[in-house]
Design goal:
Strand order of the largest sheet: 3-4-5-7-6
Shape: globular
Pfam families: Pkinase
CATH topology of the largest domain: Transferase(Phosphotransferase), domain 1
Bound molecules: adenosine-5'-diphosphate, magnesium ion
EC number: 2.7.11.22
Number of strands: 10
CATH class of the largest domain: Mainly Alpha
Order of helices and strands: EEEEEHEEEHHEEHHHHHHH
Helix content: 25-40%
Number of domains: 2
Protein name: Cyclin-dependent kinase 10
Radius of gyration: 22 Å
Strand content: 5-15%
Number of helices: 10
GO cellular component, one term: ciliary basal body
Family: Belongs to the protein kinase superfamily. CMGC Ser/Thr protein kinase family. CDC2/CDKX subfamily.
CATH superfamily of the largest domain: Transferase(Phosphotransferase) domain 1
CATH architecture of the largest domain: Orthogonal Bundle
Largest sheet: 5 strands, antiparallel
Distance between the termini: 37 Å
Structural class: alpha+beta
């Protein structure tokens, strides 16, 4: 977005839809967003790769919310047009399994923008870390079903999450799982600038992305769901690669070497020539999960199809017999909750989302 010229009378901004600029009417000069000053910051709850997240109180409504500062690219001109578009779209999304983006508020400076979101007590990454015992299979099914319902909704709205992982899955004290940090991936530019693999986790990245595909589809989210399902079942990450080449190698070790036969178009992917993939003819999923039922293994296989076109969709997974056989998914209320470090100061459970039932 073009920097408004504060000295002059008029503010001219670049058009999103058409080439050229338009003049901001004087009455909209200060925008129509509330100020972040209307929120009392209570404590820092997360600092991800791109933004700081606070637990905060809306002083107008007394509601407890999560406030995420959108980190801007300093070299660029303010907030990218694509993220504005994305945020506008996300504000309209409403689903019990998607974190609610309530509004966008502004700080003192033009470049400080905050997202106001429904507050969730924990994220699955810290939950997994702090749990004394692994999730039961019934609990895993309950979580994954909720992730799938949220994803089905996102995908139906033409949104690819692009960064699904356990730290982006939040859970309320009522056991309601909500996908967070969604869609905004584009706001920060994807693929993200090269960073150490420790910062931007590779573990959930689909093979077509690792091999440089330029067409991103909803199936990249489904690969990540496979990794999340496996991680919840095994209580440890499935494919914890330390570099892109290591990540690809771990995938090949687990699933066998891909070929043009099982994945038409594979050999033409931009980065295929850069790696010499080990020859590994077997699919080792069954060895990794010897105790898993046939239906469970079928679901994992379906999520880990090399060919993105053949990979399970969220709808396919929701139909899976795995979720209909014993142990049946537990009720969200039976999810483990811990006194979480964030809640030390006992957040009043005023958030609307918390009192609502989790089912769509
Ligand atoms: N709505 C929310 N309620 C509670 N905690 C949240 C919320 N949104 C984010 N967090 C916490 O902040 C962390 C980082 O937020 P996230 O949106 O994933 O940003 P980043 O892009 O920095 O990863 C999350 O892993 C989670 O622990
Ligand atoms: Mg995140």
């Amino acid at each position: 977005m073009a920097e408004p010229d504060l000295e002059s009378e008029q503010i001219r901004l670049k058009c999103i839809r058409k080439e050229g600029f338009f003049t901001v009417p004087p009455e909209h000069r200060l925008g129509r967003c509330r100020s972040v000053k209307e929120f009392e910051k209570l404590n820092r709850i997360g600092e991800g790769t791109y933004g700081i997240v606070y637990r905060a109180r809306d002083t107008q409504t007394d509601e407890i919310v999560a406030l995420k500062k959108v980190r801007m690219d300093k070299e660029k001109d303010g907030i990218p047009i694509s993220s504005l578009r994305e945020i506008t779209l996300l504000l309209r999304l409403r689903h019990p399994n998607i974190v609610e983006l309530k509004e966008v508020v502004v700080g003192n400076h033009l470049e400080s923008i905050f997202l106001v979101m429904g507050y969730c007590e924990q994220d699955l990454a810290s939950l997994l870390e702090n749990m004394p015992t692994p999730f039961s299979e019934a609990q895993v099914k309950c979580i994954v079903l909720q992730v799938l319902r949220g994803l089905q909704y996102l995908h139906r709205n033409f949104i690819i999450h692009r960064d699904l992982k356990v730290s982006n899955l939040l859970m309320t004290d009522k056991g309601c799982v909500k996908t967070a940090d969604f869609g905004l991936a584009r706001a920060y530019g994807v693929p993200v600038k090269p960073m150490t693999p420790k910062v931007v986790t590779l573990w959930y990245r689909a093979p077509e992305l690792l091999l440089g595909t330029s067409t991103q589809t909803t199936s990249i989210d489904m690969w990540a769901v496979g990794c999340i399902l496996a991680e919840l079942l095994a209580h440890r990450p499935l494919l914890p690669g330390t570099s892109e080449i290591h990540q690809i190698d771990l995938i090949v070790q687990l699933l066998g070497t891909p070929s043009e036969n099982i994945w038409p178009g594979f050999s033409k992917l931009p980065l295929v020539g850069q790696y010499s993939l080990r020859k590994q003819p077997y699919n080792n999923l069954k060895h990794k999960f010897p105790w898993l039922s046939e239906a469970g293994l079928r679901l994992l296989h379906f999520l880990f199809m090399y060919d993105p076109k053949k990979r399970a969709t969220a709808g396919d997974c929701l139909e899976s017999s795995y979720f209909k056989e014993k142990p049946l998914p537990c009720e969200p209320e039976l999810m483990p909750t811990f006194p979480h470090h964030r809640n030390k100061r006992a957040a009043p459970a005023t958030s609307e989302g918390q009192s609502k039932r989790c089912k769509p």
